[in-house]
Amino acid sequence: MTSDKTNQDQKVDNAKAQMRKGMLEYCTLLILAKNEAYASQIIHLLKEAELIVVEGTLYPLLNRLKKENMLQYRWEESPQGPPRKYYEITPEGLKFLDHLDISWNSLAESIEKIKTVNPKNL
Amino acid sequence: MKRTTTANIAGIVFHIDEDAYEKLSRYIKKLKFSFGEIGETDETMEDFEARIAELFQSKLSATKQVITIEDVQSVIQTIGEPEEIETNQTKSKDRKKGHKTLFRDPKNVILGGVCSGIANYVGIDVWVIRLITLTFSAFWGFGVLLYILLWVIVPEAKTPDEYSQMSGETFDKEEFEKNIRNNIESVKQRFEELAKSDVPKQATSLIERFFSWLGIILTAFFSFIGAIIGFAFLITGLVLLVFMISILFFDIGDLGILSLNLPILDTIMAGGTTVKIVLIALFLIIIIPLFLLIAALIRALSGKKHHGGGFVSFGIGVWILAIVLFTLFFVLKSPFSVYEGEIESKSIIEVNNRDSLIIKGLKYHYNENYDLKIDSKHLGVITDDNKSILIIKPKLTIEKSNSAQFELKIQKTAQNTKQEKADENAQEIIYNYSISGDTLLLNTFFESKLSDFWQNKKLNLTLYVPEGKTIYLDHSLENNLLNINNSINFKNTSVFNKYIKQGENTIE
Q1: ipTM of the complex
Q2: What range does the domain containing A83 cover?
Q3: Which of A14, A61, A63 sits opposite B43 (nearest CB)?
Q4: Is B129 an 8 Å CB contact of chain A?
């Protein structure tokens, strides 16, 4: 039997996982909009921001974005290990990112609104 | 000392311990199942491999030149098991919320978490389920088999998503396949662990062989490597299904080895309650998996992913019920005793013309408002708007008489759970016949309440014909079951509307 506490943890984990899923695409595009990067660099940044738990999450995402023409990449030899893929955002990706920015802002606003709502006005 | 092997990962050669290699190749296979793409160049997998190579390289130095199992472990931890990798691809969207899925619960495990998974699914305490499983195992060893089967088929809950769902079903072939592979792997591992502790070596390899064999078969089966194989299965299945259904209703006749002369439905109707239940159960036991298999094949071949969850569970439910009934009534020889009540009377038939007897059947006088629902050689059911009547047809047997007179024996039988009641029920049968001149007019039916069908009332008429005398069977008896003893085979020629004579031993 699971105790209430672990149940609670599970729920939080679950909610967090759901939120991250939605955010990850946006954040990856944000990073790449600033500068081109190879997978490990993106992973490093995302890990620091606590947006991913395991590295594996990123690879399917990058590939999907590439297929949707949001990203493109070029190969570069690495001083150690296999050659690296440097990803950069495409014009299409930038346009998409603009939309995401707008959505994010309105979303953040909505949440702020709800958080600060005066209970008497309900 | 350890044996090492070499692996080419993203174009770089690594020396790797054999156990580490095994683990890594399993991991890569799992990733492939989850994220691999079929057909085109698989970029995602290339990326994964490139990253694995990069991580491996960082672990090697001048003094450490071989990748060990710990290195593989740490790489898997960094990149993550497929279940931990969060994607927002279609898979998770497909799952409807609140729709339960059966998962094994890895947090509450004795062997494989099957029982706890079922407990979560149906909302009963685990121990109840465990007790039921144990009981099943104790009696027929059936529980053990079912357990292993479920262990292989049912996926383990790993992600928070799956936990919340533990208690929606999406039939996703790839996922199903993936799960089965993963599960076989874990069953294998578990057995390996168990084997290492105690079990003699030979058994281990046997178990291992069994599971790898099972794995091969399941994989081959579910991946439908040949759609042709699937198609062949489908055709065979359909033919079998049609065959099964047709022996229900029709006389198949001689089919070489399978000379099935009895339509099963008639046998069912004619048999006692127990026989009926056993036969119907047996039929369901055979036909339901066949049907589900065909449905699954059609689904897989058509490539559609819609799910017939309700239908499948219903089928499985009925199937299990059929097995339980079959076991109760056939294997355990019926827990409810059935008594047979019987009443017999014999009377001499006076015939004016002393040498022959004409036998006619008096048909049930169907009212125009009645609707004949069922009509077989054993019984019929007629209904009008407010009631149903069971019309039971007597069976007529012709036998040689020991005396010089025509005799008619009437035997009424009925079944019930108590002897007195069975006798009573047999007595309730009202049957009429009349003799006028040289004609014996037999009712071709007697009535019973439809709700009393389980009493299995039956009427056997035996007509004793003296040697040298002839009988004429009118075609009005054609719809009744006729049994002529000591006869030349009448199967191929009709006996109706003909004078037949009782000889010394045979009737002709």
Answers
A1: 0.80
A2: 21-102
A3: A63
A4: no
Residue B85 distance to chain A (closest CA, Å): 5
If one counts the domains in chain A, the total is 1
Contact state of A53 with B107 under an 8 Å Cβ cutoff: no
DSSP letter assigned to residue B417: S
User: For residue A73, what is the domain's CATH number?
Assistant: 1.10.10.10
Rounded to a whole number of angstroms, the distance from the CA of B325 to the nearest CA of chain A is 34
Interface list for chain A against chain B, based on CB atoms closer than 8 Å: 1-2, 10, 13-14, 17, 20-22, 24-25, 39-40, 52-57, 59-64, 66, 78, 80-85
What type of residue is B349?
I
B86 and A53: CB-CB below 8 Å?
yes
- DSSP assigned state of B378: S
Closest CA to B349 of B480, B412, B437: B437
Residue A7 lies in a domain: no
What is the token pair recorded at B319? 């199937």
pLDDT in tens, B339-348: 777 888 877 7
Query: Which pair of tokens denotes residue B250?
Result: 């029709």
Q: Nearest 10 degrees: CA dihedral of B226, B230, B231, B234?
A: 170
Residue B74: which residues within 8 A CB-CB, separation 6 or more? B55, B59
Check CB contact of B88 with chain A, cutoff 8 Å.
Answer: yes
H or E element: which one contains B260?
Answer: strand B258-260
**What is the tens place of the pLDDT at every residue in B401-414?**
887 788 888 888 88
Q: Which two tokens stand for residue B349?
A: 């038939």
* CA–CA–CA angle B256, B262, B267 (5° rounding): 150
